[in-house]
Give the backbone structure.
Amino acid sequence: MPKQTFLSLPEDKQNTLIQSAKKEFSRVPLHEASIANIIKDAGIPRGSFYQYFEDKEDLYYYLLNQVAQENNKKLNSILQEKKGNLFEALLEQFRYMISLRHHEEHNDFLRYAFLNMNHRKENTMANNIYKESLKNERSQTLEMVDPSFLNIEDKQELSHVIRIVGAITFHNLVQVFVHDLTDEDAIYNYEAQISLIKKGLQRKEVD
């Protein structure tokens, strides 16, 4: 998590360091990223960097947390537009996410982010200081979903639904950003998978 010295910086100086970090994390995977490149581009001494963040991993997960929060806010905004219809909101959110591949500033950073999401890093992300903030964001999402659109009994079941569709969304985004699936194929696959969840998979028994 950023240290108070970073949070106390003027916004323009914060943004300078953030943009330099994004540039470096878009150039190479996390394990190859260089603090030297970040501070050179940002024009700050190495000592100042360590006054702001513990290390490059600390800065990297801060950036990922920002992305996650922005995406949650986007989803909540779409949910509001769709009057709480979860599946309609998910489809629009997915289209928005894959549109980011066409923006150079987002594509490489997200590609390496998904590429880096191995088990060790997911556990690191899950156990770090940002877990609570993401939990709060997701609780807001749960409140905005209209359960009358879904065949569920309570909020616990809704939470499970969110986890399931989240896993499906993550898998499909990996296909886009890591495996270069076309927008058309990605949308087709995602819509087909979401449609199966909407319908349910067990055939009703005939009396």
